[in-house]
Every structure is written in structure tokens, then in C-alpha cells.
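Database export, one record per block. Field names are fixed; values are copied verbatim from the stored entry.
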Amino acid sequence: MERSIHYHQALWSYRYILFAHRFAGSGTLRGVSLHGCWIYPVRRGAVVAPLRVSQTLREVNMAGKNSTELVQRFWREVWQAGNPDAADDIVAEHFAITSGDVYIGPRNVFKAWVQGFLDSVSDFKFDVVEIFQNESGDRVVTRWVVTGKNNGFMGMEADQTPIRITGTAVIHVGEDGLLQHNWVERNALEVYRQLNNSVG
């Protein structure tokens, strides 16, 4: 029979899971093995669904991080500052972006792609519209807007036509705090049609 750790009289909080993980070390807490145990977290006096320790230590570890801050740094230092090299301290070496079902990675390839993107939009400006993370902290979603002028975007003639690009990014944040992958969907077709009409 699997052992259980009960929160007596519903007085313990979810923070106890973080405490248990922090002192668990190689899987023990003060000599008590956590492997195969179940934890019954309590939130606001009510017991919620039990969590199996062996399956949830990773989520507990991620829960202690503000992953939106990590992603905000990515937007601020790489895109808003126009500095692809800043990615070296923010994303994993194998980091990649998937945009329009096209894989762009690893990190060195991604950095070159960013520089090309920045070069193709003069007066580049990147704004975060909305950003939030899931409960475990390993996924962060951002809605963003890029504005500027066409300087050869998508291979079009650099006529400096004003452009507005909107998109949604889903970013995987690793346990080490480094960004692992970025899935992006953007209004590329609409922007292309706009630029094509301006040329015609």
C-alpha cells in the first residue's frame, strides 16, 4: 500500500509542497522516503486533488518561478533592444522557434533569423499586449504587436510602407529557467497582401 502524507485538519497550505521538495534532496524528507507517496494540498481550507510526489516534483519546482518575467526579459533584451546576442543568456543552446510550421533553430540559427527580421522592418517597435503563464509555469503565452516600416519584409521591395504585425507566442520554459522553444502564429499573409497591394 502506498504511503500518504496528510495535512491534518486542513491547516497546511500548498507551500508545504515547495518545502518538501526543497528539503527532499535525493528523494527523502527527514529520513522519510517520498517515492510513491501522495500529497494532499490544501488551498483556502479545502483539500484539492491529491498529487503523486514522483509525478509532480517538476511542477512544484516550476511553480516557484515567475516564468512571465523570464519571457518578458526575452522580449525586452532580444526584440525590443534589437540585440539577438542577448539570447545567449536567456534561451537554451538547442532553442528554436516554429513559425508557420517552419522550424528555425538551434540558437545560433535563431539569432541570425532575428537579425534578418529586424533588418527587414525599419523603425521597429515590439509591444507586449498580454502575457500569462500556466499553473506549472512551463508555458507562457504572449500576444504581441510589431509596428514599423517595410524595409524588405518577406522579400518585398523596401518601400517604407507602414506595417503592423500581430502574433501569439507560446513559449516553453525549462526547469533551469532557460527558454526551450517558441511556437508563433502571426498575420503574415495579411501583411504580405498589404505590401503587395502597395507595390502594385
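Remark 1: The radius of gyration is 22 Å.
Remark 2: Confidence is low (pLDDT under 50) at residues 1-37, 52-57.
End of record.
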